[in-house]
Amino acid sequence: MLINKMFSSIDVHVLGEAYRIVVQSPILLSNGDVHVNNQVLQNNFSTEKKLLLNEPRGHRGINGCLILPSKTANYQLLFFNHENVATFKYEGLAASLTALLETGNLQRTKDDIYQIETNKGIYNIEANIVNGEVINIQIENKHAHIMELSDEFRKVSIDNDRNYLVYELPNFIKSIDIINLEAITTWGIEKTSQLNEQSVCYEGVILTKKQASSLQHFKTVTFEKDGYIKRTPGIDSTVAIFTSVVKDASTNIQNETIFKSRLTATKVTGSEGKYILRLRPFVTGSHQFILDNDDPLKNGFLLK
């Protein structure tokens, strides 16, 4: 065996979604500018990224995060993902911070507030830590607003960067429950295919159903651009629903997925389109991966 390259990572789950936090790798980015580093990462290292994301080491639902030093924050965070997946996710901030704190790779601050530098800007994230364990992470989005209203959907922009199309559950699907998963999946694949053919600019499609038990409780399914169903309620999705659907003076909503994961958003007092969300990531393991040039599956594969 010729060991060509070695990678060290920490895997973290956030509300059912997996993140692979790469803390050591041969992906060398020496420029201190986060935008330059991000551009280099997105346009290069195809083999390395496939090794970390694809089967048999990864899977379609895993998200890649690369940790780098920062001159202006606690660390620099870059994302690398599968095709048709957003290259920034708020959950990645929570996942990476939890991984670094719980493994001793980041020193705890006095106020438990941490700055993370990304190509979308610097985010201040608060961690609640008890006996060395991260109990929850508090995140506040930057901005959200409705871009377009139609009889069919509401188009919401998150941080003036990522657009989501919010649809109400069609009448021919009775509810957002596992028993209707086949019909929901078919609807999502057809809808995303239609949008892709029309070259619509969007990051995801959100199917929603307000629950009769509470005006603040919604069941949802979020589809990524290839029709893949996200396992998490998602910060972007939750913010998009709050922005597009809630018409009353509610100060919070609960977003529940078809898989029963839940996330609550609280409106920031006196603001428009800004919300506070608290979530608890879990470290699920650490890994070392070796890239062997003789590996017949060095580029991996994806099961869909």
Short description:
GO terms for molecular function: 4-hydroxyproline epimerase activity. This protein is α+β, with helices and mostly antiparallel strands and 304 residues long.
Structure commentary:
The chain is of the alpha+beta class. The chain has 2 domains: 3-141 and 282-292, Diaminopimelate Epimerase, Chain A, domain 1 (Roll), CATH 3.10.310; 144-273, Diaminopimelate Epimerase, Chain A, domain 1 (Roll). 19% of the residues lie in helices and 39% in strands. It contains 5 helices and 16 strands. The protein has helices at 34-43, 46-53, 90-102, 181-197, 235-245, and strands at residues 3-14, 17-24, 62-68, 75-80, 113-118, 121-130, 133-140, 144-149, 154-158, 162-168, 204-210, 217-224, 252-257, 262-267, 275-279, 282-292. It has a 16-stranded mixed β-sheet with strand order 8-9-10-11-12-13-14-15-7-6-5-4-3-2-1-16, sandwiched between helices. A hairpin with a 4-residue loop joins strand 8 and strand 9. The two termini are 31 Å apart. The mean pLDDT is 92.
